[in-house]
Amino acid sequence: MKLKVCGMKYQDNIEQVAALQPDYLGFIFYEKSARHFEADNMPELPKSIKKTGVFVNADINLVIKKINKHNLQAIQLHGKESPEYCKQLRQENIEIVKVFSIKDEFDFSVLTPFEDIVDYFLFDTKGKLPGGNGYAFDWTILNNYPSTTPFFLSGGIGLNQIDDINKFKKSVASKYCYALDVNSKFEIEPGIKNISDLKIFKNNLISTIMNYNVNEKGYYGEFGGAFIPEMLYPNIEELRQKYLNVMAEPEFIDEFNQLLKDYVGRPSPLYFAKRLSAKYKTKIYLKREDLNHTGAHKINNTIGQILMAKRLGKTRIIAETGAGQHGVASATVCALMGLECIVYMGEIDIARQAPNVARMKMLGAKVVPALSGSRTLKDATNEAIRDWINNPVNTHYIIGSAIGPHPYPDMVTRFQSVISEEIIWQLKEKEGRENPDYIVACIGGGSNAAGTYYHYLHEKDVNLIAVEAAGLGVDSGESAATSVLGNEGIIHGCKTLLMQTKDGQITEPYSISAGLDYPGVGPMHAHLCKTGRAEFMAITDEDAMKAGLELCKFEGIIPAIESSHALAIFEQKTFKPSDIVVVSLSGRGDKDLENYIDYFKI
Ligand SMILES: *Cc1c(COP(=O)(O)O)cnc(C)c1O
């Protein structure tokens, strides 16, 4: 169920509520209301929050004026507005919510003339003034709801109603309940919302369904947390205390969005792959992260983290890298901001990934070889952590996937969530609906998948598919199929699923694609796997390479081998012709040319 917070009035309070990420924020344009929104401008809000104008028998021209002035995405009509009135507003291309008040009984036939005209109904308690009465009506009346139009449930919903809401969720009436609308029960005074109460409510609301987001303690179900050496505690704690506030600052949001637009080249297109769709007899859309600056989704996260580092007053950046992709993305943003950049990389990887090492050096980064252990990614990570312990004050550690101690998995996921934020409106434009039937993404640590899933995590009609690397075969001993082979353990500061021997030694993973060659998955994905929210599939090197070449031939796009794994599922799973399947094309294949050449003897 979605959440709408209504009756927003004051700038600071609006921003604080927006940071909790409700789905709708309501602004009342009705002079007689104590919550009348009078300010000239609304603060910039994340695109995922729909700004809703609330009107009572207003002149239609005034409504249109407000829609344009404040860039409203929805309107809510509380008066005696007629079906014709609503029809006229349809042309404004916004969601229309028509309100009806319920007392002890309700004549549902009054809804009929509005059925095909409005998007949602909203049921409120009948009271003296529209909005903010503070009393709940008897929800069992809705057991007779004769319509299939989704509705908002409103009227006196507060913390005391959590048990009732849970009961309601099990009733027939809840089937078409699309959102809960809250207002006066969460107020300190009219127009000022109590943030901590709202937070509790939102967490409860989600947890009674199943929370796939991180909780207050940094856990996704049983996975996550921060298992770190004592010496790192101050660094991680500083980040934990500040990251959400920093990310909610309007200047931060502005700067992040501006760079994503002008530097990274966002929004990345949502491309309908026509010939591929014809072959597999379903509708396949590709989310083109391959078109981002530096060629993959990783830049979304490094842009976010470099801005975070600056806000925290850090002047020196460290990162670890395996194949070099994250190292390049980190070196790029350090050059952009003029910050010192040190990239730790296993000695073996340095030899294997010469072009990326050259890129990092050209971008001004210092590449430091990790000489211990197997001289690969995990040894580079150890070196980076050692560096951080020694330089706690001036240094920020940019982690490159949705892994690491809390708050990293959540922070990285939020930076990458721009991917699903865009899919929502792009799909609406192309298909007239926001939700695809399936979302498919490959998983190394899980950052492109986390970002592509994020805004759909609690949308039950959207199926999530996570694609891991099976290497030479799941049972070959040469794979990275963590969901099948892994069990609970601690890696890089968090509790998650990882591949390990009986006595807890981490197993060396293998995949032809460097980005999927990781022995664990991020804690969010461990939770999605354990709860069954996401379906996990494993794809071999061979099937991935074939799917990669197929995309070249069918669509003229050379994908990264990581992304080719996601594309390979169409040979294994059948979709319906009407299904919309969105695939995260996480990166482009330039970096993999040599691999493709060797493999196919091109
Ligand atoms: C790094 C990388 C991946 C894997 O990382 P995630 O954090 O799982 O997204 C996938 N695709 C590409 C192109 C990459 O560079």
The major pleated sheet works out as: 8 strands, parallel, barrel
The geometry reads as globular
Total domains: 3
Query: Considering DSSP H and I runs of 4 or more, what fraction of the residues is helical?
Result: 25-40%
The mean pLDDT is 94
Task: Outline the structure in words.
With 602 residues, this protein is α/β, with parallel strands linked by helices. It contains 21 helices and 24 strands. The chain has 3 domains: 208 residues, TIM Barrel; 151 residues, Rossmann fold; 214 residues, Rossmann fold. Helices cover 36% and strands 20% of the residues. Strand 1, helix 1 and strand 2 form a beta-alpha-beta unit. Helix 9 crosses helix 10. Bound molecules: pyridoxal-5'-phosphate.
What would you say about this model in short?
The chain is α/β, with parallel strands linked by helices and 602 residues long. The chain is built from 21 helices and 24 strands. The termini are far apart.
